[in-house]
Amino acid sequence: MNVLVAYYSKTGATEKVALALEKAFGEGNTVTVFRIRPEHELKAHEYRKSEKDLPLQKPLPSLKDFDLVIVGTPVWGFCPTPIVVSYLRQLQGAKGKRFALFATCTALPGTTIMRLSNILSTKGATVVDTLTIRSIFELDAEKLKPVQGFAQRLLKEP
Question: Where does the Flavodoxin-like domain start and stop, copy by copy (predicted)?
Answer without folding.
Answer: 3-155
